[in-house]
């Protein structure tokens, strides 16, 4: 049953979030089609920023019950407050279990709006992530109105790897509506195709046309979280971001511009730009490094007993679905050619 307090919370908080997102993110939410109270709908959207649920909700005049990662349910008192005020539907990241499906169906049956980010994850590289084809089957089974919502400018405003957000252009809108009558005529595969096309976003292809500046501080800091192979020396984890520069010990140096593209700063990179092989954005660099990585890891003579990549001061955590977390050990996370090892520094065995 959908409680009245959810409408009250939504109505009271909506103006404050509209003002905040406008000032902090230059966000513009275009009005969604008005759905009569009691008419259910499933809202599907692409996902790039932590505040995407708030961005999406500002286009609507009714509260939305979002399918949310179960980590927000493991925060003690904060989680209890969130449950009471907005009643999100818990899901284990990138999984759709029976309990989640049951709650979605119950909310739709009660005439509510359900918000779902079918990628199940925020993009590191600016392209829409993998969407499970089974989503088409879920939509077909629900049989309610479907609204496909797209956020443009989200990745360039708040890259997942970045330590600071930027301010430029960010807009959300419903780009496709599928009414129950049309839905009944479509197969799950057709629904999936329509959904995938509507939610497909390539931040850098979009930005090449728009050329909108995204201003901020420390633009390149954090890039090493997603770009970890140097195109010049092929070194792993040798890249570092500082202010707007992204560089390697081998001499490679590029500048992350306010347009979100790289500009060459060293002679080698300038030559790459001249011959058309310069990797001028995160997406292109990520595609290149993923193709190169197997050849680097399994090159003849590569030592199998040395870690290829590692992160220090990590925690190994055991979680109970939408309930609590337990820290099992602290230590270093190491990736070898044939295994992933958690090397404890507090007396616990390796895992």
**What Rg do the Cα atoms give?**
22 Å
The CATH architecture of the largest domain can be given as 3-Layer(aba) Sandwich
**End-to-end separation:** 44 Å
**Element pattern in H and E:** HEEHEHEHEHEHEHHHEEEEHHEEE
Give the strand order of the largest sheet, numbering strands 1, 2, ... along the chain: 1-7-6-2-5-3-4
Mean pLDDT: 89
Outline the low-pLDDT stretches: none
Q: How much β-strand is present in the residues?
A: 15-25%
> So what's the overall shape?
globular
Class of secondary structure makeup: alpha/beta
Number of domain units: 3
Any descriptors?
351 residues; alpha/beta; Glycerol-3-phosphate (1)-acyltransferase; 23% strand; globular
Layout of strands and helices, then pairs:
Elements: H1 4-25, E1 27-29, E2 41-45, H2 52-57, E3 64-69, H3 77-86, E4 89-91, H4 98-109, E5 113-116, H5 134-142, E6 145-152, H6 154-157, E7 170-178, H7 180-185, H8 188-199, H9 203-210, E8 239-242, E9 245-248, E10 253-256, E11 262-264, H10 267-274, H11 282-297, E12 309-320, E13 324-335, E14 340-344
Parallel strand pairs: 1-7, 2-5, 2-6, 3-4, 3-5
Antiparallel strand pairs: 6-7, 8-9, 9-10, 10-11, 12-13, 13-14
Helix pairs in contact: 5-8
């Amino acid at each position: 049953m959908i409680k009245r307090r959810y409408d009250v919370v939504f109505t009271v908080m909506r103006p404050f979030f509209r003002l905040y997102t406008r000032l902090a993110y230059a966000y513009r939410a275009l009005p969604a089609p008005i759905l009569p109270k009691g008419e259910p709908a499933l809202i599907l959207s692409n996902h790039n920023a932590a505040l995407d649920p708030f961005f999406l909700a500002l286009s609507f005049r009714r509260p939305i019950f979002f399918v949310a990662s179960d980590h927000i349910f493991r925060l003690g008192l904060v989680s209890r407050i969130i449950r009471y005020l907005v009643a999100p539907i818990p899901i284990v990241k990138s999984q759709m279990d029976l309990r989640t499906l049951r709650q979605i169906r119950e909310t739709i049956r009660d005439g509510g709006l359900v918000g779902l980010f079918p990628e199940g994850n925020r993009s590191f590289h600016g392209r829409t992530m993998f969407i499970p084809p089974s989503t088409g089957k879920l939509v077909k089974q629900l049989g309610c109105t479907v609204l496909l919502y797209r956020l443009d400018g989200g990745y360039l405003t708040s890259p997942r790897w970045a330590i600071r957000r930027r301010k430029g252009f960010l807009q959300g809108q419903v780009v496709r509506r599928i009414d129950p009558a049309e839905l009944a005529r479509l197969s799950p595969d057709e629904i999936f195709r329509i959904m995938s096309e509507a939610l497909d976003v390539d931040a850098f292809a979009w930005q090449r046309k728009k050329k909108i500046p995204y201003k901020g501080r420390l633009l390149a800091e954090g890039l090493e979280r997603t770009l970890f192979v140097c195109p010049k020396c092929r070194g792993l984890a040798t890249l570092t971001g500082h202010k707007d520069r992204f560089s390697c010990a081998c001499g490679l140096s590029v500048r992350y511009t306010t347009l979100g593209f790289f500009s060459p700063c060293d002679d080698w990179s300038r030559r790459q730009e001249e011959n058309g092989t310069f990797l001028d954005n995160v997406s292109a660099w990520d595609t290149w490094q993923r193709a190169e990585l197997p050849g680097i890891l399994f090159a003849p003579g590569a030592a199998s007993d040395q870690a290829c990549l590692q992160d220090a001061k990590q925690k190994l955590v055991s979680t109970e679905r939408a309930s609590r977390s337990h820290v099992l050990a602290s230590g270093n996370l190491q990736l070898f050619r044939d295994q992933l090892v958690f090397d404890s520094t507090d007396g616990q065995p390796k895992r």
